[in-house]
Every structure is written in structure tokens, then in C-alpha cells.
Design brief:
544 residues; alpha+beta; D-Maltodextrin-Binding Protein, domain 2; Dipeptide-binding Protein, domain 1; Dipeptide-binding Protein, domain 3; 3 domains; six-stranded mixed sheet; 32% helix; 18% strand; disordered N terminus
């Protein structure tokens, strides 16, 4: 299909009509098109703010929940949301948030500072098993509570002196703390609902939330339908009356839905279509704070492969054999840049340390040396794991070819749908897996602290006391320049160990119809739907 795919897309309107019929023909729900339709890629792994780690889930949570602050539509600035203002102590260790008067949950009940206390303690609780709890370990007592050194939630540095005041005590100043208050793990959840139905409180008939939209229906592999939340504090300024979020993983199907006007926004496009899409005004890739890389499993069950991947020269050989420029120029073609670091360029005050580029002769030398050190004549066969998506497959095929042609390795490709992929990666049931990280806040630490020993987002088995100490030192350093220097040294350390293989830096790949207003580019490629509005007359004239 690739060569003629884009030319044929508009002639495939009947496919879109079939998809449209399947998407909207759901019993008990308005069969008309939602006011706004988004193709979101994979199914979110959960609707629990404490459990989600993926980008698709984040988009859903930002529609259904609100936090103390919200990210500005065109920058990384945090704007007031459920909190109307805040104060910071002179030493930077105490933040006091003043909640808006009269804010409510989607069921009409009052939302108070106690709800934030409960939700943040829940995030840190060991039983919650949140993979993002570590992000807020700057809160006094939180790390001790999560790791079991303390069993008392009262020791966590959060309190509610009154219903409209939420106070947070930090063990040391956190430069990016305010940005975290706009990130979904910090969003409050409704205590009564969570405690009554701890395993499935997020069912639509039970769901209580705080955001601009209220969940009405979730049909897995079909759609998530939500309507404007009349109890949201700023509901009068939410333009969209209803939204449908479609979990369509196939990028060609997503593009067809977009070009035929079935949806208003798609977040990614198939690479074969990029050259033609670049001619359009509604596709404008921009730099994005994100890196695509391969994880190398240091903790696998197979002893031979564990020894093989445990050798530094082997890992470095794998890095130097990859044709990153070819992947960016001939596979992706959207302006992606070959990656030679973990932290992408563009963060203020930080210049990431860079690895050298491709070197096939060095790759061969390193592999020969590594096998000799291991006493192996040949390398074991292994696999590259990737989740369902055409670009992941295409990239894996290039890497497979590079490793075969340069290093003589026998590499299999293994594909899984998103949920199975996450479970397999988290349980160390892979050899090498594709991965990516989009910055959760505009600071290099968001790309570096996850490689600490035991971090739930590490997923490689990498553990290095020296690296852990560097990240802790950076967290306790108040001098900004010194802190960034420590982080740079830490990144150089983990790059030298080659625990992950950088591939490319992301660009945004959104297609947004011209009738959509308020959905603009920003470095995190993070968009909140309550800033979005529609020119409905233009859409009516444009979609026939």
C-alpha cells in the first residue's frame, strides 16, 4: 500500500464510513458525532492518575481530571487551575496552595484540600504501586513512606490547615516542583468512590472526577466518550460540549479518519505519508522534549543472554552499529534528529553530553572484544520487542538489518499490543525493547532520575550506586548551575555504561484541522482540551 497509499486515502471514504458506523453505533449513547474527536493511539493502561505512565493515558486524564495548576497551551508555564494562587517560603521548602472557592467534583460534592492530602498520600502508598511516586519524593517523608521505612501516612509532608488551603513541605527545594502540580499523578481522586470500589472505581457509572469533562462511556478498543462537566470551576469557558477519544493504533486508519473529516485531531501519522503531509498547512512538525531509545535487559531469565547484555563492550557495539541518520531520513522523514544522548537538546541551561556517531569498524571491534571477554564464540540469538505500530516495526527492521550486516547477529522481531508490551517490559520478559520518554516537566532530571536502582520506570535492571548518588546529590543542590553540572556528569556516566541505546529525538507529528482553535505547538507537545474551541461553521463547510 505504501507507494500509492496517500493518493488512495481520499478514495477510501467508504472505509471511514464503516469505521464511523462501528465507532458511533453504541447502544444507550448519542449516535451523533461528538463535538470533538481525537484519535489517541493506544488504549490508556488505566484511568487512575496514580497508575498511568503512557502518553495516550495522559491525554485522557487531562480531559477528565484537573490539578492545582494546568500547563499553558503554548508554553511549559503552569497556570492556576483548581488552585487560584500559591505562596512559596523563602527557603523554597514550603508551598501553600489556595484553592478556588466553591470548586466541586463532577457529582457536585465539594472538592477540598483534604482531597489533595488523601490523593497525594495514596500516590505514595506502597499498596498503590505507582510508577510515578518517585517524581514527588522531594516531598518530605514521601520516599520513606513509599519504600516502607515509615508506615505512617501522617509523616508525609502534606496537610490541609483548612478546606481551601493545601500545604506541601519539601525536604529540599525542587526547581521544577510547580510544573509537577500540572502533571496527572498529582491530580486528586474522589476518596469515597475509590475506597468503595478500589478495583474498578473508574467505571463510567461510578466515575467521579474534577476536570473539564465527565466520563459517560468507555468501550475498550472502540472509544471513550465524555461530556462537558457542568461542575468544573471554569465550565463556562469550555467550548467543547462532548469529546470522543478513539484508541486507533493503526496510523493509516487514523490518517484516513482525519482526511475524511471523521476526527479533528490525530497525534501521529504514518511515515510514508510525511513527504506529502509536509506540503499541508495542518501538519507542522516541531521539536519535542522526547527521546526514542532501546532498553537493554540486564535482568533477564536466560543466563547466556544476561551475560551477553551485561558486557559493556557488547552494549557499545550495538550502539555504534545503528544507522540513526538512515532511520530519521528514510524511515521517519518528519525532521527527527539522530540521538546521541538521553536528554534531548533544548532545555534551558543544559547541554547534554553527546556520544560519537555511527562507527561500524569500532562496532565490530567492540563485539569481538566483548565475546572474547565472555568466552563466547558466537552471540546468542535475541529479539527486539516493540508494541503495535508501523514505525516501531520499520525502525526495528532497520536495526535488525544493521546488527546482522555489521555484527553478524541473529535478531528476531517480536510485536505485542500495548498492554501486553507494558507487562512484558515491566516483568523483564524481553531482550531489547523499543522505548521512549517524553519529558514530564521541562528539566533534564525527568530523563535521568528514572535510571536509579529500583525505579519503577527503569525497566532495565540497571543499578549503579555511583549514579544513584549523583542523582541524589543533584536533588539536594540549590545552586542551579552546579546542579545541572552534576546531572550532566550523571548522564555521561549512564551513557558510558550504555544501559539504553539512543535512536532519535522526537518532533511533534500532530495533524489538526483548521477549524480547531487553541491547540498550538509547545515543547512538551502537551495539550489540554479545555483550551480548545471550534469554528463549527468552517467545519460544516469543509466536511461534506
Amino acid at each position: 500500500m505504501r507507494r500509492d497509499a496517500l493518493r488512495n486515502l481520499l478514495s477510501l471514504g467508504f472505509v471511514a464510513l464503516l469505521v464511523l458506523g462501528s465507532v458511533f453505533a453504541l447502544s444507550g449513547v448519542d449516535r451523533e458525532r461528538a463535538d470533538f474527536v481525537l484519535v489517541n493511539g493506544a488504549e490508556p493502561e488505566s484511568l487512575d492518575p496514580a497508575k498511568v505512565t503512557g502518553v495516550p493515558g495522559g491525554r485522557v486524564l487531562r480531559a477528565l481530571f484537573s490539578g492545582l495548576t494546568v500547563q499553558a497551551p503554548d508554553s511549559t508555564e503552569s497556570l492556576p487551575d483548581l488552585a487560584e494562587s500559591w505562596d512559596v517560603s523563602e527557603d523554597g521548602r514550603t508551598w501553600t496552595f489556595h484553592l478556588r472557592d466553591g470548586i466541586k467534583w463532577s457529582n457536585g460534592e465539594p472538592l477540598t484540600a483534604d482531597d489533595f492530602v488523601y490523593s497525594w498520600r495514596r500516590l505514595f502508598a506502597p499498596d498503590t504501586a505507582s510508577k510515578y511516586a518517585y517524581l514527588l519524593w522531594g516531598v518530605a517523608g514521601s520516599e520513606e513512606f513509599t519504600t516502607g521505612k515509615s508506615n505512617d501516612p501522617e509523616t508525609v509532608g502534606v496537610e490541609a490547615p483548612d478546606p481551601r488551603t493545601f500545604r506541601v513541605r519539601l525536604r529540599e527545594p525542587v526547581p521544577y516542583f510547580l510544573a509537577l502540580t500540572a502533571f496527572y499523578p498529582t491530580f486528586p481522586v474522589h476518596r469515597t468512590t475509590v475506597e468503595r470500589w478500589p478495583d474498578d472505581w473508574y467505571r463510567p457509572d461510578r466515575f467521579v472526577s474534577s476536570g473539564p469533562f465527565r466520563l459517560v462511556l468507555r468501550s475498550v478498543r472502540d472509544r471513550l466518550h465524555a461530556v462537558r462537566n457542568e461542575h468544573y470551576w471554569n465550565a463556562a469557558n469550555v467550548d467543547l460540549a462532548s469529546i470522543d477519544i478513539l484508541p486507533v493504533e493503526d496510523l493509516s486508519t487514523a490518517l484516513n479518519l482525519y482526511l475524511t473529516g471523521v476526527c479533528d485531531w490525530i497525534t501521529d501519522v504514518p511515515s510514508y505519508a510525511v513527504p506529502e503531509l509536509l506540503k499541508r498547512d495542518d501538519f507542522d512538525p516541531q521539536p519535542r522534549i522526547g527521546s526514542y531509545f532501546y532498553r537493554i535487559n540486564q535482568n533477564g531469565q536466560d543466563e547466556t543472554k544476561r551475560r551477553f547484555f551485561g558486557n559493556r563492550n557488547v552494549r557499545r557495539a550495538l550502539y555504534f552499529a545503528i544507522d540513526r541518520a538512515g532511520i530519521c531520513e528514510r524511515v521517519l522523514r518528519g525532521g527527527q534528529v539522530p540521538a546521541h544522548s538521553i536528554v534531548p537538546p533544548g532545555l534551558a541551561g543544559y547541554e547534554p553530553p553527546m556520544l560519537p556517531g555511527r562507527d561500524v569498524e569500532l562496532a565490530r571491534e567492540l563485539m569481538t572484544k566483548g565475546l572474547s571477554e565472555l568466552g563466547m564464540e558466537t552471540a546468542p540469538q535475541f529479539s527486539i520487542l516493540y508494541n503495535t505500530r508501523e514505525d516501531h516495526k520499520n525502525i526495528a527492521e532497520v536495526v535488525q538489518s544493521n546488527w546482522r550486516d555489521v555484527l553478524g547477529l541473529e535478531v528476531r522481531l517480536e510485536n505485542m499490543e500495548w498492554q501486553s508490551f507494558l507487562k512484558t517490559e515491566s516483568s523483564f520478559g524481553y531482550d531489547i525493547s523499543r522505548a521512549s520518554w517524553i519529558g514530564d516537566y521541562p528539566d533534564p532530571n525527568t530523563f535521568l532520575d528514572m535510571w536509579q536502582s529500583g525505579n519503577a520506570n527503569n525497566r532495565t535492571g540497571y543499578a549503579d550506586p555511583e549514579y544513584d548518588a549523583s542523582i541524589r546529590e543533584a536533588a539536594s543542590t540549590t545552586n542551579a548551575a552546579k546542579r545541572l553540572a552534576i546531572l550532566k556528569d550523571a548522564e555521561a556516566h549512564v551513557l558510558d555504561d550504555m544501559v539504553v541505546i539512543p535512536i532519535f529525538y522526537y518532533v511533534s507529528t500532530n495533524c489538526v484541522h483548521p477549524w480547531v482553535r487553541g491547540l498550538v505547538s509547545n515543547f512538551q507537545d502537551r495539550h489540554n482540551l479545555h483550551f480548545v474551541s471550534l469554528d463549527r461553521e468552517l467545519r460544516k463547510r469543509s466536511v461534506r
